[in-house]
């Protein structure tokens, strides 16, 4: 078994100030669990969800080669995944094309060449990775759909790492079908967390800008999920303590303190991800934010955080907090 290093999943306690009860979040099962869809706000019952097994993704189509290469100059906040999505290219191909050993080591001002050739052109270029392998079989739970007043449709859910390794590049596809079994809409989503440790979980969200009329069923398909490998070494263990959650007007507020649990390594940045659930364990909301640090979080050091965000349905019955600390860029 590969040991996941440098990451920490912290489960928060939900403090309901109105009744002074402390609720311990329910841990996800060790096997894949897919819940039916929850009621849409305020009371429309939406169709159930089914799960399909993993498959090998089809190679992403790319534009025709042009004489002038496309060059992207790294800006503050850029990630390899974000750049790949912006240009519509495969993240593995972008990484190998530019000989990037560690995606977390990108530097501001660094120039990346965007691979724009088709499959034949890619085969002629040295150093490119093989096609994406069959994804590891992780779990998906708490999937729910919520219609909005403007006619769009949110799909929220949670990925559970039921494998024996830390996961990275986790992606799912949600497909909606009509009563005849014909595809009505389809969209992909990556897990909010870059790394999901053993037994860990991470939310995902998809916004269908227009809710398909007459859709009656849905399916979640595992598209991508790879062993994190050495990427896990880019993270340091970060704990979450003194956590409380409560209503703040129409929104939900979660506050607490992150603490660097490493004995030697500072955290250059810390990202906090919160997921809320209803009393059936369906995901009702999610929010992630990077904590503002004046300097790297030293071993044993602490820093406060507060997240305020909207949710669907009734007041959350439970919530979970994930903290990811990344080593400073050199």
Structure, described:
With 330 residues, the protein is mainly beta. The protein folds into three domains: 108 residues, Immunoglobulin-like (Sandwich); 116 residues, Immunoglobulins (Immunoglobulin-like); 54 residues, Membrane-bound Lytic Murein Transglycosylase D, Chain A (Roll). The chain contains three helices and 21 strands. The strands form seven sheets. Strands 5, 10, 11, 12 and 14 form a five-stranded mixed sheet that branches. A four-stranded antiparallel sheet has the order 15-21-18-19, with no helix packed on it. A hairpin with a 2-residue loop joins strand 16 and strand 17. The longest helix has 8 residues. The N terminus is likely disordered.
Quick take:
This protein has 330 residues and is mainly beta. The protein has helices at residues 80-87, 91-97, 119-123, and strands at residues 14-16, 21-23, 39-40, 44-45, 49-52, 70-73, 111-114, 139-147, 153-160, 167-178, 183-190, 195-196, 201-208, 215-227, 235-236, 238-248, 251-260, 269-277, 283-290, 302-309, 318-326. It folds into three domains: 14-26 and 232-326, Immunoglobulin-like (Sandwich); 39-56 and 134-231, Immunoglobulin-like; 70-123, LysM domain (Membrane-bound Lytic Murein Transglycosylase D, Chain A), CATH 3.10.350.10.
Number of DSSP helical runs: 3
Uncertain regions: pLDDT < 50 for 5+ in a row? 1-48, 51-67, 118-132
Rg on CA atoms, Å: 21 Å
CATH architecture of the largest domain: Sandwich
Tertiary shape: globular
Oligomer: single chain
What share of the residues does DSSP label as strand, in percent? 35-45%
Looking at CATH, the homologous superfamily of the largest domain is: Immunoglobulins
Mean pLDDT: 76
- Quote the distance from N terminus to C terminus: 31 Å
Count of structural domains: 3
Structural class: mainly beta
Number of strands: 21
SSE string: EEEEEEHHEHEEEEEEEEEEEEEE
Assign a percent range to the helix content: under 10%
CATH class of the largest domain: Mainly Beta
Main beta-sheet annotation = 5 strands, mixed
CATH topology title of the largest domain: Immunoglobulin-like
């Amino acid at each position: 078994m590969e040991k996941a290093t440098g990451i920490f999943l912290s489960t928060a306690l939900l403090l309901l100030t109105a009744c002074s009860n402390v609720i311990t979040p329910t841990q996800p099962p060790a096997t894949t669990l897919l819940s039916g869809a929850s009621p849409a706000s305020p009371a429309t019952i939406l169709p159930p969800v089914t799960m399909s097994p993993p498959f090998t993704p089809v190679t992403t189509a790319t534009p025709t080669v042009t004489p002038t290469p496309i060059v992207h100059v790294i800006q503050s906040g850029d990630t390899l995944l974000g750049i790949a999505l912006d240009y519509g290219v495969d993240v593995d191909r972008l990484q190998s094309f530019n000989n990037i050993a560690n995606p977390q080591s990108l530097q501001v001002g660094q120039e990346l060449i965007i691979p724009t050739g088709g499959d034949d052109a890619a085969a002629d270029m040295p150093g490119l990775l093989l096609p994406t392998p069959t994804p590891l079989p992780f779990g998906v739970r708490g999937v729910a759909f919520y219609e909005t007043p403007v006619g769009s449709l949110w799909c929220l859910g949670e990925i559970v790492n039921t494998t024996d390794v830390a996961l990275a590049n986790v992606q799912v596809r949600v497909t909606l079908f009509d009563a005849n079994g014909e595809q009505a809409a389809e969209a992909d989503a990556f897990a909010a967390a870059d790394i999901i440790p053993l037994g860990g979980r991470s939310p995902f969200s998809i916004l269908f800008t227009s809710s398909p009329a007459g859709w009656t069923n849905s399916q979640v398909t595992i598209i991508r999920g790879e062993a994190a490998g050495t990427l896990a070494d880019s993270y340091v263990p970060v704990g979450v303590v003194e956590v409380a959650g409560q209503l703040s007007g129409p929104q939900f507020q979660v506050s607490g303190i992150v603490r660097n649990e490493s004995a030697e390594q500072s955290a250059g940045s810390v990202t906090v991800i919160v997921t809320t659930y209803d009393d059936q364990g369906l995901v009702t909301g999610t929010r992630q934010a990077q904590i503002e640090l004046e300097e790297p979080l030293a071993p044993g050091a602490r820093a406060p955080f507060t997240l305020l965000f909207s949710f669907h349905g009734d007041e959350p019955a439970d919530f979970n907090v994930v903290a990811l600390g990344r080593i400073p860029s050199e």
